[in-house]
Design brief:
The protein has about 400 residues and is α+β, with helices and mostly antiparallel strands. It is about 55% helix and about 10% strand.
């Protein structure tokens, strides 16, 4: 009987979906959105959501812009209702008056986004939709409120509690490995053999965060080298034909590449949690590891040198110049000018060492004349360093790096 009941339910559901599709044939996408917002049934709601997402996927650039304008201006908050419900809540605070105020404050586009997310694959399509939106904001700043709402929702949907940390190795599904090659943003992977060198040897690791609704799409991943001592060259770290060591012989874990994979999740921070989780897991599994560092690029160095009013001696040591930039070049808010420095220092790391000639690739030379930096993640000091950075904008650095920076000040 249960089989027959299920069969009838399936036939009814398909018939109901077809009836809905026939009913809305010829309606605009905006009409479908309004109908979805008024829908109460599960089948009708999911059918409308699927139709809207399918239509969006087939839109050209002009049509997408019109759709975003509808979401921004056609599904906006009612400012008068917000004012009135706030006054009511202020005059007579209660669960009911607060609910009315909270409801008035939420634009209808947030509820539309939630309802679009109810269909299989909807989460990934909405992330791709925000990627399209971000590409329009410079020329269409009036769409920014829509982006605020999408980022607000994504911050909840993609918080750490929903993310799954998964190792990525040579046995991982090919579709995942292909995406690691495509998404690598720091040190390009130029072949399958290059990828194999990064994920197969005993002294190499790769980890990524995944979301249950996007199981085949890494959100962010980190590549790790297990070494003896702190490395000072990424070319040596990635060299073809190098001699691998046993993981048990390593005393240092080096985070040498961190890549965000989803442009539509810009502004949603995963790297902080990823590095700390990976460090904790490696420390548990390999007790011989005593040091956790990065080998990081300094992407803003040469741009700063070209634009700064700071007097830099022409014969200054390149490593000292890089150290001075990391410690002293600041944004108006007092945080480091370099984006990678802001990321790691905000996570609680410290500027540990600076190396000349560490990345002699064309990109490394273009960014920083080949200089790279180790940020040290001292697990016992991360929280303290983070608090100092957030509250006082303190750049925690080793004595050696401070001494290098000081030579620039004394020579200028």
């Amino acid at each position: 009987m249960s089989f027959i009941a299920g069969l009838f339910a399936s036939v009814f559901e398909r018939s109901h979906r077809k009836a809905i599709k026939d009913e809305v044939e010829g309606h605009t996408t905006a009409d479908l959105c309004l109908k979805l917002l008024g829908s109460q049934g599960e089948v009708s709601g999911s059918t409308l959501a699927r139709l809207i997402l399918d239509r969006y996927g087939a839109m050209d650039a002009a049509e997408k812009l019109a759709f975003f304008e509808f979401m921004t201006h056609g599904l906006e908050i009612d400012a008068q209702a917000v004012t009135e419900t706030l006054k009511t809540y202020k005059d007579a605070p209660s669960k009911q008056s607060y609910r009315a105020f909270a409801s008035a404050c939420e634009p209808r586009r947030q509820e539309l986004t939630r309802r679009l997310n109810q269909v299989p694959g909807g989460t990934g399509q909405l992330v791709a939709m925000r990627k399209d939106l971000l590409g329009l904001l410079r020329d269409h700043p009036l769409l920014e409120p829509l982006d605020v709402d999408l980022q607000h929702l994504f911050a909840s949907w993609f918080n750490r509690g929903f993310l799954v940390l998964r190792p990525i190795n040579w046995s991982s599904p090919a579709q995942i490995l292909e995406k690691i090659i495509a998404y690598e943003a720091v040190h390009a992977i130029d072949s399958w053999d290059d990828l194999r060198r990064r994920v197969q040897p005993a002294d190499r690791r790769c980890f990524g965060f995944f979301h249950p609704a996007m199981q085949d799409e890494p959100l962010i991943f980190v590549e790790v080298a297990l070494t003896k001592g702190t490395p000072n060259s990424v070319q040596n770290l990635l060299a073809n034909g190098r001699n691998a060591i046993s993981a048990d012989d390593a005393d240092t874990a080096v985070f040498y590449s961190i890549s965000n994979c989803q442009a539509g999740l810009a502004g949603i921070s995963f790297g902080n949690s990823l590095i700390k989780q990976v460090a904790a897991d490696l420390s548990r599994d390999l007790p011989g590891l005593k040091t956790f560092v990065t080998l990081s690029p300094i992407p803003g160095l040469n741009k700063w040198l070209a634009a700064t009013d700071t007097v830099i001696p022409q014969d200054a040591d390149q490593t000292a110049v890089a150290a001075h930039y990391l410690l002293e070049a600041k944004r108006p808010d007092g945080t480091p000018l370099d984006p990678v420095a802001r990321f790691h220092l905000g996570n609680g790391a410290m500027v540990h060492a600076v190396h000349a000639g560490a990345d002699v690739s064309p990109n490394g030379m273009k960014q920083s004349n080949g200089a790279m930096v180790n940020y040290l993640y001292d697990l016992s000091q991360i929280s303290k360093n983070h608090e100092q950075f957030v509250s006082e904008k303190t750049v925690v650095a080793s004595a050696d790096v401070r001494a290098l920076s000081a030579t620039i000040m004394s020579e200028a």
